[in-house]
Batch of 4 targets.
Target 1
Amino acid sequence: MKKLLAAVLATTALAGAAQAEDIKEFNIGILGGENAQDRLNAYQCLGDYTKEALGVEVKMFAPADYNGVMQGLLGGTIDMAWLGASSYAGVYIQDPEAVEPVLIKINLDGSYGYHSIGFARKDSGITSLDDMEGKVFGFGDPNSTSGYLIPSIEIPTYKDGVTMEPGDYFADVKFTGGHEQTIIAVNNGDIDGGVTWADGQGAWEDGYNNGALRKAVDAGLVDMNDLVEIWRSKPIPEGPIVLRKALPDDVKAIMTKLVDELHETDPECAYGVAAGDSLGFDPITHAAYESIVAARLAKAN
């Protein structure tokens, strides 16, 4: 921790708590996807680093759904979060001045994207979306990119006449509440198939290198040998780490550098924050998400 703090202070030419003189506390929002306690545990190290770097109390919030984090950012009660591309677009559409994207996660191959992965139980006999006709399909959260927005756009193009309306191609379409909930629901046989997010790299048996499946494997929730991939989206731009625009510039600089260097200074902490193996984070701007903003606006019309 001292190594990380020293690097942050050296870069920003600040010392002690002076860098936080314009803020009284710093609040980190953690997007849904797994149970709240697991999310808080994964981010605790980042919270500790933040408290030492800024010299103020740090609070972490893990709302039940994506909208809780989005509204916190819009209302100024959350200062930083790692959003999905769609949830970032949702915040931007409501208030373009609320947050700014600063960093994006890097996959082990140097890419910045991930996929919406459709999956089912292996013993169900379902091997593709062709086998899902008349079955129950699960989305995660309506503000999720991979858990709703992208599959709801791409799956209807998979086969002529397919819509996401319950009782049409699928017998029913349900929102489970999040990625972990979808994985558990499929694994338990409560729904026949669903979608979640993964980098799509590495071994299926490990839940790939990074994403919700990897987190579920690490938590001992599933054995990937019991599941099978049945669909994969086109590459999706990884969601950004965002900071509230109204924060003092020095605070934004400190937090950007802290997260940017986390992979090098504390790989174990970075693993938890990034939901698996990665090469850390790189700078990113709003321009990377213009297509997602357009897709979300089109979906709303």
Note: Residues 15 and 234 are 46 Å apart (CA to CA).
Target 2
Amino acid sequence: MKSVKKKPVPTHKEVFVKRITREILSGKWNPGDKLPSERELAAEMGMGKTVVHNGFEQLAAMGLVYIKPKSGIFVADYMKTGNIETLNAIVNLNGDELGRDVVEAILDLRLAIEGMALRALCLCRSEDDIAHLRSITEDIRDCSDNMGVEELAERFFLWHREICILSGKSVLTLFMNTVHDVSIAFWVKYLRMYGTSFAIERLERFIGFIEARDCEGAYNLLATGIDDYLANLEKQTM
């Protein structure tokens, strides 16, 4: 009988770092805001002051805060000064935990990555590539009624990642993989917002532009889709 691996219990420091990370990336705290003192947070969260101090040092290394001796701890302008640790912090949170600015930045990254792949694929595509995209689109259509929204979101993510693979620009695929988890959260929202039929129809439109070698048509379809998604998110929060 196989033993079931227990999920590791997070340390107090990990709990602290995740909470502050979530609060910063959700927009509760904005760049330049002064955070509560180590003593205040330690008392509020029932942790030792040393744990909080070490947590803030990790957050500083992640590019989310900066520490000014004798002045306090402030939220960094992480979109300008962040690093790979900042990106890891973003993608390790659920899409629902991210503020509007962060969501927009991630979708800008997607447009840059997949937009480049779409333009490259339009120029180099083969008949086999078109047949492959049509095949996986039909597979999504045939299975969609029997899938939960999260499983369906995974299928749509993989379809769009396939654009990067077929483009021949393999590094772009690595970037798509980097934002996989947070992208799934966005796809779940997208499918609930527009419905499966609409989403599949857009896949077919992408294929049509790729088959016609219409680089700008494919790119613009992606760009306008992202803009419309963001506009609808804005309406939902008003």
Note: The longest strand covers residues 65-68.
Target 3
Amino acid sequence: MSLQLFISVLFGTLFLLLLIFRVVEPAYVLLFNKPLYIHWYPFSKKLKLSQRQILVNDFPFYNGLSPKRKMYFEHRVNEFIATYQFVGKEIVITEQMQMLIAGTYVMLTFGMRNYLIHLFNKIIIYPSSYYSTVNQTYHKGEFNPKMKAIVFSWEDFLLGHSTSNDNINLGLHEFSHVLHFHCLKSNDPSAIIFFDEFKEVIKYYIDPNLNNVLKQKGYFRLYAYGNQFEFLSVILEHFFETPHVFKATHPELYAHIVAMINFNEEYFK
């Protein structure tokens, strides 16, 4: 192939990609309310055997995926661990900590193409509840935008992960806060869809009639009604922990969450 022909093919390919992202995908999002594609990894990264075994032993969501989707999940977990710094405070960071935290985040964002968020760059882990200088009280976890940090009490993170039917999951809760902030600021297709569906979800918080229906049925714990951010985080905890109850109790709200994070219900066995 001559240099001139190579340059022509290269520019033609770049133009086609630009057309897809500027014209085709926005139209696709408008029609189908989902990104044109989610997973595409030319150089997919694999986990070590010990890392994969942690997912097999401790992550039912991973075990329910098809072999191809397990490959996608592993690649994203690998990228998460490589991207974000894990910092132990009076505790040694272990492979299990990295895998369970990364797996929780990847599960939450599995239907979104741009999953690595730059609002945080480190994950700080304490052995148990810790004293926060932000509001002078003890915390189990928090998202600190100024420090660009997610902070967890490992004791409480592990309890939330291992207890799968109480609708309390510290990892999902704090990562939901990050995802919420990100989608308020970003304009990528997944963020746009998230924000549009969030406007429908939040009606259940601000509309007195819809809000009363939620409270009367008593499915969501009272902490959800503190503010809009906690409302969304609590709802996402319920979505992943007891999805079948959620769908039966509040089917319309459930459908908005499915669309909001572009979630494939086949993952819920």
Note: The two ends are 51 Å apart (CA to CA).
Target 4
Amino acid sequence: MDTLMNFYNLLQARFFGPFKSGGEVVIVVHGGAGNTPDERIPAKLKGVKKAALEGYDVLRCGGTVVDAVEAAVKYLENDEHFNAGKGSVLNANGEVEMDASIMSGNCIEPGTVTVVKGIKNPVSLARRVLDKTPHIKLAGEGAHVFAKNEGIKIVDPGALVTGYAQELLELHKKGELSDCGKSDEPDTVGAVAVDCRGHVAAAASTGGCTGKLAGRCSSSTTASGVYADDNAGAVACTGHGESIIKFCLAHNIIQEMENGKTAEAATKQSLVKMHAKLKTRGGATAISTRGDVGIFFSTPKMVWAYVKGGRLHYGVKPGQHEIICFEKAK
């Protein structure tokens, strides 16, 4: 059925334009909440813009929302300026261990992988878990074997280690970075999308936090960090993972949306509550099945971008919201 629907969507988009059912096609991408050094902002902002456009092109050409969020996050995994895939930070042993998830709002189906090494694009491995297994999560060596069997690209783990990640680990060892998950450098990247029928999806990918213990799992592999439900919307969170799990942040935002709040109000209220209870900061992007967007972060910065109504929206600091024509953005 999914294959048939994808084929129909592709024909519709190629020959008749996007299918219209009263809804709106929207994709939102974030590059992690934190306090990124100013000199790293231009590259990160360029990355989230390109990722949003990448995902939007998938939707315009008849792809599903799951296809779109996978494409957007995969783009960020391939950009070493982000803490995902190639740019992942290092654990206490100097290794890259990554987590990723992807979730379809149709029957609230997730696929996740955790503590994986040498996987170029963990979000695509999470997609295979969603599509090819009856499971929700695969970890470590088991996930690696599954990746080999599925033809997922595997690289030497050292190929994912960047000089910047090594610099951060050295700062951590000297005590010049705060506790794991509370440092100024952004972590998880994510994407949420809705199609014209109101179907939603969410995805996230992360290297975790600098100096974490080997084997640590992030909030990105739980319903606290990523959630999608066609009855409400989709959410992708970023920030202090342990706090996000304690507060069940993503699901909390979804519940607020189910109770009638807009994506914007639900996202802001939930993050304010989390900070009041746990004294930790973070960010989230959300989208409702109606296509309204919610972006909020309690950190100094979070690079984000979304495409809606033929325009590309983006920002970095609280209150910043720039808009340019979609065609000019390309």
Note: The longest helix spans residues 41-60.
